[in-house]
Design a protein that fits this description.
- The protein is mainly α.
- It has one domain (6-288).
- It has 13 helices and no strands.
- The N and C termini lie far apart (54 Å).
- The relative contact order is 0.13.
Length: 289
């Protein structure tokens, strides 16, 4: 058994009368030769690491470059003042995405989901919710399965497929996880994944000075909010007109055709703006001193 396509997971669900997350659990048990309890224990440790990272955030740290730090706390305070135009859950999602991505830039312990640069998306949509342990497992196994399929059929690396492969994949994982915990079907999970990926297809990876800071931190916010909207559309019965596996393959093709300047080389996009180049020069000068 392998997680090579969403269709294969759907087929396993139908043939074995399993939920999406249970198919992924069975795969993990077979792949690592562990018991259900062993697999779940490791997944819950992952969840605890996400919670610990969120709890440890104070907004007092800045990255070594000085480009990142404190924005997660600014958003939290803005929300507490009741000034957010969104309010409630989505505002909390934004604050969590900023906080977690900043923690990564500030060299704090995070969970790569699926990468460090996209670490804020999945926890951002889950942490503000009051989830049972069962729902946590549903969400994390579902997200893991989606990430595994995308890694198999396309890419999850910015250096290979641009930021669509990192933030796009994280957003798809988060969208599917939200649908799973809300009782959505396998097909609805697929539609949420497809819509989340389509919305971010073609997103370039252009880190200023080669650092996973600008624009990476704020792109975690876009990935998280995109995931919420894709999940809501899927739960409303809205469908992707392009099947999810075809969307994943298209994302992979776009990544392979993307010029090297837009694949984590810091040679194009925002990294090549006058300000972006000035930041790089400042960082290089600082290293020589």
């Amino acid at each position: 058994m392998a997680l090579n396509s969403m269709r294969e997971i759907f087929d396993q669900m139908r043939e074995q009368h399993l939920a999406f997350w249970e198919v992924v659990l069975a795969y993990d048990m077979d792949e690592r030769q562990v018991s259900p309890e062993g697999s779940k224990a490791k997944m819950l440790l992952t969840w605890q690491a996400m919670r610990d990272a969120a709890d440890a955030y104070t907004g007092q740290r800045s990255s070594l470059s000085g480009l990142v730090g404190g924005d997660g706390m600014k958003m939290r305070q803005y929300n507490l003042r009741g000034e957010s135009m969104l309010g409630g859950y989505v505002s909390a999602v934004i604050a969590e995405a900023l906080s977690m991505a900043e923690s990564n830039a500030c060299m704090r312990r995070i969970v790569a989901a699926p990468t460090a640069g996209a670490c804020g998306v999945l926890p951002a949509v889950l942490l503000p919710l009051d989830l049972t342990q069962h729902q946590i497992l549903q969400a994390l196994y579902t997200a893991s399965g989606i990430g595994a399929v995308i890694a198999s059929r396309a890419s999850i690396a910015g250096a290979e497929g641009g930021c669509q492969a990192e933030i796009g994949t994280a957003s798809a994982m988060a969208a599917g996880a939200l649908v799973a915990i809300r009782g959505g079907s396998g097909e609805q999970i697929g539609h949420a994944v497809a819509m989340a990926l389509k919305n971010l297809m073609g997103l370039v990876c252009d880190p200023v000075a080669g650092l996973v800071e600008v624009p990476c931190v704020k792109r975690n916010v876009i990935g998280a909010v995109n995931a919420v909207s894709a999940a809501d559309m899927a739960m409303a019965g809205i469908q992707s007109r392009i099947p999810v596996d075809e969307v994943i393959e298209a994302m992979g093709q776009v990544g392979r055709r993307m010029p090297v300047e837009f694949r984590e080389t810091a040679l194009g996009g925002l990294a090549n703006t006058p300000t972006g180049r000035a930041v790089k020069e400042r960082m290089q000068a600082a290293r020589k001193r």
